[in-house]
Amino acid sequence: MDWLFADGVAPFSLALMLMFGLGIIEIISLVLGFSFSTHHGLPDLHHPDVHVDLDASHSVLGWLQIGRAPLLILLILFLLGFGLSGVILQHFAAQFLGGFSHAGVIAVPSTIIGLYHMNIGGRLVHKYLPKDETQSISKNSFIGQTVTITTGHAQLGQPAEAKFQDQFGQMHYVMVEPDEADYSFNEGSTALIIRQDGEIYRVVPNIDYLLAKTRSQQ
């Protein structure tokens, strides 16, 4: 099994090791009664200095199931698809070409496979997450909900993951973005959903935030 850590294969083996590690952490956290994926953030989805087409960005986020399933689970799905496909492709390369291909060459199809695995797996996670179909609210009812930022820093052009619990006790995860450039929300802060824009929900500060800001200015 030493070939799994050869130069051309090591990046994919490490991806699988990271996937197993994150999976174990998530399982342990669920046993303890909370989800690690909702308490520890991943890197911001967009750097604030990078200007992108927001409609295209939201479309990509939706296809990747970001906002429909916890980000850590999506990362695990990507690492599994990327790592496993890379190892398999390098195995075939060694069998038919007499040696391993350059890791950068194999990384291209492996990344594509990983993203598709993230899309398909994310759909299944979103579909089969435990919930009571007779006691759930529609996405139209998300408007007016107070959410807590769980991952990232939300500012205009830079969505972040947030969550809220509905009146039936069901937890919802959404991608939120401030409705105005004057607002920004750090991890752990709360905001109010006022409208939906594709896969993104626009938010503004809630009353607690405004009261605290008013007191600080007095």
TrEMBL record:
Signal sequence bounds: none
Domain Inner membrane protein YqiJ OB-fold: 141-204
Keyword terms of this UniProt record: Membrane, Transmembrane, Transmembrane helix
This protein's record includes keyword DNA damage: no
Superkingdom of source: Bacteria
Residues that span the membrane, as ranges: 12-36, 71-93, 99-118
Domain Inner membrane protein YqiJ N-terminal: 11-115
Protein name: Uncharacterized protein DUF1449
Organism from which the protein derives: Agitococcus lubricus
